[in-house]
């Protein structure tokens, strides 16, 4: 396949994309003359006119921008809702299959709503997490939709890296992302996309080196640890349990090195104490409500209502947080969901490695909240299309796919007599 064929875009897609961007720009300039919400009407028209697969790119690009455009809704929120509504109202919804992981995820959200209604918490946060989860499921209706998402991840990472260069060697927060943990996870996802692509090896190496440079400049241990987990998962044989078991195993192995890394790179020495206090508070809440938990975002709800007796310490661990929020039942449902997702992603390297990265980050972060870039990527990148052979494992570690034989040079053919297995995961 030639480069021209790879980048070929339909003229209607170009026109609709340009028209949507133009309407969006005009909406920010025109304002509301004579009290008429012309800006909002033009913005909604842009979301309807723009190509469907472009809307998830808008979501991940603008999710860290908290300026509201319609009541409490941001532009990212509107783009996510517009995507789900447009896809649900079209025949393309038939391309979204039902898998075991999606059924368990639905049960997890139902249980979370139930314990929050009967306990204490914020229903709105659960609603937005459900929107992000639906976004990830709907993205699997077509391979093209996922490729647009990958383009959005790489595009945002590239823009942030370019804007960061004049600020080097300061910590990499990101101009738009504005958080080193979120910025780092975005770069890790970009690294996975580049490493698993079928682009020329030299180009992949250059892009990977740039992304690794950005990851190092975040000076965030959880991001470095997630990158280590991804690297190890790429080398090990693919098994459904590896994304679940590998992060805690590596955490136990590298725990004695945390203080050395902290001193060597002059990192924040107080974050460890804050996390340990949060872990203890989360485990105490789990002890009080072991089966059902106390509800999602109970600490924020208690603070808003002036209710005492609930710890306000943030719990920087997804699993401990789940234990305190939704109890043992919710914790097991989410664990089963991750296991099923790992099983379904065995033939999709991007999904498999993204799940590993997300679970690696989750040991020292609690990313599931509204407006979280990590949450959106965690619920969209690991999703994959249902495949009959998705349960079949391979004894070989992952290697990037090679180009088609017609695109190989004679030098390439001489040195690659045996073709490695391709992205399907089957042996050559």
Element layout with pairings:
Blueprint: H1 3-6, H2 11-30, H3 38-49, H4 55-62, E1 68-70, E2 73-74, H5 75-88, H6 100-118, H7 123-138, H8 143-164, H9 180-195, H10 201-217, H11 221-235, E3 237-238, H12 242-254, H13 258-264, H14 271-288, H15 298-305, H16 318-344, H17 349-361, H18 373-380, E4 394-397, H19 410-415
Antiparallel strand pairs: 1-2, 3-4
Protein architecture, described:
With 428 residues, this protein is an all-alpha fold. Mean pLDDT is 84; it is low at 1-5, 388-393 and 404-428. The strands form 2 sheets. A two-stranded antiparallel ribbon has the order 1-2. The chain has a two-stranded antiparallel sheet with strand order 3-4. The protein is 61% helix and 3% strand. It is globular.
State the shape: globular
Estimated helix fraction: 55-70%
Q: Over all CA atoms, what is the radius of gyration?
A: 22 Å
The arrangement of helices and strands along the chain is HHHHEEHHHHHHHEHHHHHHHEH
User: Alpha-carbon distance between the termini?
Assistant: 21 Å
Low-confidence parts lasting 5 or more residues at pLDDT below 50?
Answer: 1-5, 388-393, 404-428
Count the strands?
Answer: 4
Transmembrane segments: 40-63, 100-119, 125-141, 148-168, 180-197, 209-234, 240-261, 318-337, 357-379
Protein name: Integral membrane protein
Keywords: Membrane, Transmembrane, Transmembrane helix
Question: Can you summarize this structure?
Answer:
This protein is mainly α and 428 residues long.
Keywords:
two-stranded antiparallel ribbon; 4 strands; disordered C terminus; 428 residues; mainly alpha; disordered N terminus; 3% strand; 19 helices; single chain
């Amino acid at each position: 396949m030639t480069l021209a064929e790879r980048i070929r875009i339909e003229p209607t897609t170009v026109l609709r994309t340009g028209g949507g961007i133009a309407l969006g720009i005009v909406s920010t300039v025109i304002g509301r003359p004579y009290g008429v919400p012309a800006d909002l009407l033009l913005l909604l028209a842009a979301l309807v006119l723009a190509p469907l697969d472009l809307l998830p790119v808008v979501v991940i690009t603008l999710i860290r921008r908290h300026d509201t455009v319609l009541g409490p809704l941001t532009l990212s929120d509107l783009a996510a809702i517009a995507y789900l509504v447009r896809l649900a109202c079209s025949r393309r919804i038939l391309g979204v299959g039902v898998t075991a992981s999606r059924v368990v995820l639905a049960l997890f959200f139902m249980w979370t709503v139930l314990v929050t209604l009967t306990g204490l918490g914020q229903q709105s946060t659960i609603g937005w997490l459900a929107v992000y989860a639906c976004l990830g499921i709907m993205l699997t209706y077509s391979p093209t939709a996922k490729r647009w998402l990958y383009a959005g991840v790489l595009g945002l990472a590239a823009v942030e890296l370019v804007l960061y260069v004049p600020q080097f060697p300061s910590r990499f927060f990101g101009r738009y992302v504005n958080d080193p943990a979120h910025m780092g996870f975005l770069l890790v996802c970009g690294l996975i996309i580049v490493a698993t692509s079928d682009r020329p090896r030299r180009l992949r190496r250059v892009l990977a080196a740039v992304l690794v440079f950005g990851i190092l400049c975040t000076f965030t241990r959880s991001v470095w640890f997630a990158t280590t987990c991804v690297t190890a998962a790429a080398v090990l044989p693919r098994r459904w349990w590896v994304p679940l078991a590998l992060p805690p195993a590596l955490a136990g192995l590298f725990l004695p090195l945390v203080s050395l890394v902290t001193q060597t790179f002059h990192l924040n020495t107080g974050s460890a104490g804050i996390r340990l206090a949060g872990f203890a508070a989360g485990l105490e809440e789990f002890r009080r409500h072991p089966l059902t938990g106390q509800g999602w975002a109970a600490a924020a709800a208690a603070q808003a209502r002036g209710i005492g007796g609930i710890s306000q310490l943030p719990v920087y661990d997804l699993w401990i947080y789940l234990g305190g929020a939704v109890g043992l039942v919710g914790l097991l449902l989410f664990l089963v969901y991750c296991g099923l997702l790992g099983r379904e992603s065995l033939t999709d390297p991007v999904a498999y490695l993204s799940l590993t990265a997300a679970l690696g980050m989750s040991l020292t972060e609690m990313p599931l909240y509204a407006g979280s870039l990590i949450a959106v990527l965690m619920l969209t990148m690991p999703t994959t299309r249902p495949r009959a052979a998705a349960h079949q494992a391979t004894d070989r570690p992952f290697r990037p796919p090679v180009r088609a034989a017609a695109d190989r040079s004679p030098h390439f053919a001489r040195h690659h007599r045996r073709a490695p297995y391709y992205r399907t995961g089957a042996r050559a």
